[in-house]
Amino acid sequence: MRADFFFESYNRRAFHDATGLDVDFVQDNHSRSAQGVLRGLHYQIEHAQGKLVRVVAGAVFDVAVDIRKSSPTFGRWVGVELSAANKKMVWIPPGFAHGFLVLSDDAEFLYKTTDYYAPSHERTIAWNDPQIGIAWPLAGAPLLSAKDQAGVRLKDAEVFP
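The chain above was modelled as a monomer; its predicted structure follows.
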């Protein structure tokens, strides 16, 4: 079956009109993960990245956690389902940790970033930190990379002022 379509996935003017933000994206990333894989909660303590995220195949539960110590919402999280079907995008501001759980058989996840990847500044907060209390839609344990297994609790993490 042929499925032709055209979809304008990003327009700087429309993004600015909708958000009031004038950001300069410098890098696009594309990952594919299997069902049950949980990535995150990631951030860069220096060269903090803003991320505009979306899913082009499958579905994920996407999460952002405010890790700006001076913020009234420090330690709080928000989650939303992103899928190829709903075509939603989410803006993850600098100063937030980010993660996602793959809900479908597999998922392709795309994100634009406002700063370059800096592995020496990348940090990971534990996906299951009770202080944050994310209600991941899980039935059992997620599949985690070694980096994500080594995530630290928010109380022990380097955070933003």
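Residues 22-156 form a domain with the Jelly Rolls fold (CATH 2.60.120.10).
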